[in-house]
Amino acid sequence: MTKNKLFTIFILSIIYIFIRNIKFSNFFGNRKEFDIIESYSDTILSPKNTIGEYPGYNNFYLNYANECSKYFKYPKNSKTDIVIFAYTYRPGKNFFLIFDNIIDSFKNSVPNAIIACVIPQKDLISKGANLLKKYGIQLIPFEGYEDYSIVTSRYLAIYDFLKNNINNYKRVFLSDIDDVFMFRDVFSTFNEDEIIINKLFPIDERWYNKSFIEKGNNTVKDLELMKDIGKNKINPDVINGGIIFGGIKKAIQLLKIFIDYVNPTKAKDFGYDQVLFTLLVSKNKFNSIGLKLEHCTQRICFWLDVKYNLNTTKIIYRQNMCSPIVLHKSIPINWINKNVK
Questions:
Q1: 72-298+319-335 CATH choice from 3.40.50.300, 3.40.50.410, 3.90.550.10, 2.60.120.380
Q2: pTM
Q3: CA–CA separation, 307 vs 316, rounded Å?
């Protein structure tokens, strides 16, 4: 065999290896995906043991192939879809937010949707508000409910905004601001006729005594709702008010029911929203609007079965090897490390 032939074979071999390994999606700015599940061979860790920094949205390897694509069956995000956060300035407390990473994940996942944030009028001059404006978040100022915790007052502000914009939007995604990450277009997983809220786990005796008796009792409405839970020892699922999504009309109906039961003397307590949502769900108060409860799924998951590889670029659920769409708290602490006062 001549030297020229050997050289040609060598060059062709190099080209072949390059073509086999290249990911053309990199050239178009898309996230990399691994289509062969078996290719996920790195050591995987729980979020609390993951030490890597946030790698950036375009550097994730995510598996949405085959069975992992089953949720994506509705129209993609558009200007008639809206994500709504809530923010307030908390004096004297460290407020750990890494807006860069959280907003990065939302803006890249739903680039055509509106991203907004309800904020008390008095907080419009805060550093947090300036950061939100820097990242192009539409601020929705509100007044009133000064004595309420933001976790409850946000729903009153969001209700007023949605009611006044019912003809401008079709689908909504209500989210906590400081610990929720989005990895793919969540709007393409639901339609206008649905309303969905995240459920966590059944209430145990310790949680019941601490949260419900201290935060949810002692009012006429709450006592009526507590009857079956307290006397008959029913153990409902804890409801996570930090993620709610569906059609705008359904969302308005859900928030109206919630607001009708808010007790102003309890609304000042952090966590009251979760208690009240759990009480209302346990008494079937949302049945008339068809509220669906969703536990840990590929679409949404709270603090559960998510695994990362050593450098945090591959993210899967151990049970089915699919990548998540939205995560709440199931994320490495290194991703949330900026002190915003």
A1: 3.90.550.10
A2: 0.79
A3: 5
